[in-house]
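During the reporting period the student researcher (J.K.) took over the structure-prediction task from the postdoctoral fellow and processed the backlog of single-chain submissions. One of the processed entries is reproduced below for the supervisory committee.
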Amino acid sequence: MATTRRNRGFTLIELLVVIAIIAVLIALLLPAVQSAREAARRAGCVNNLKQLALAASNYADVNGVLPGDSYSSSTNPTWNDMSALARITPYFEQQAVFNGTNFSQHAYDTGNLTALGTGLSVLWCPSDPTVSQSAPNPTAGLPAGTWNVQFASYGGCAGPWDPNWYVWARSRDVAAYEQQLTTMYGLIYDNSAVSVAQITDGTSNTILFGELAHGALAGPSASSFNEWLQGMNVDGWAFSGSDAPNAFRRATAAQSLAALLGDAGSFHPGGCNFAFADGSVKFLKDSIPCWKTDPNFLNLPDGLAVPGGFDWGSTKPQVYQALTTRASGEVVSADQY
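J.K. obtained the following structure tokens:
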């Protein structure tokens, strides 16, 4: 007598249990995958900063000083002279871009339309979501054709404050502007000419480049700031140590633009990458010891005595500020950050 065998399938409950197990596994794996991706992006950012630091060092070997932003007359400051990044392009294998840049003109002049619209991946942090996206060139009266502007995730370190922003942009007082240039204690700012020998605090203790959170800019600001070729005279797209890293995350909506333009920022969790003058790259946490910051995020520390020539006033420099100065004599050990 022939026997029949029944094929038993999954019950609905068993199927639901399997689906639930798979969902739990995915939930457990997803943060690990995201963490691995961010680690890879952060490693790419570190590599970019190393290339920029090496390029700046090679530039200094040839020219005797580190690259500066916006070399223009203080009696007639311009908004769009060349950036430090533009000056070091031959030293990170972008000789063709350098050859196509007219340094006798400004960044937005017609002779630099192609260079301004050329995107360079070494200037893009992989975690910065929109920095690689170009924007239409807003200049009026351009020649026929499509002309764009490209951006950067990195800028030079101007020092513990940015008096140029305050003096020139707000009061346009030329005498004060010239006076404040003497109190720029960082390495890269407009009209700077800092030699490696002047970094008496030690090259391993002085920040050269850091991150800018371009992707956090929104609306017209996203297409108006952080152009890689332009070294804006106001702050040269440099950042200052007036606020701790990622100040834009703590600012209100009304304050966020000032924080984004004047302070280091990134999309890495908990801090930013910084290239030091010795070529090393270090991750500084948002929680690094920092002085009491300006509540309005105006790129000046709270309590700074501006009329007295930008002396420290009631402000007490902390570890972060010490890392932004080249020759102020602070003693900083690695275990402090």
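The committee noted the following: Residues 12-63 form the longest helix (52 residues).
J.K. will present the remaining backlog at the next meeting.
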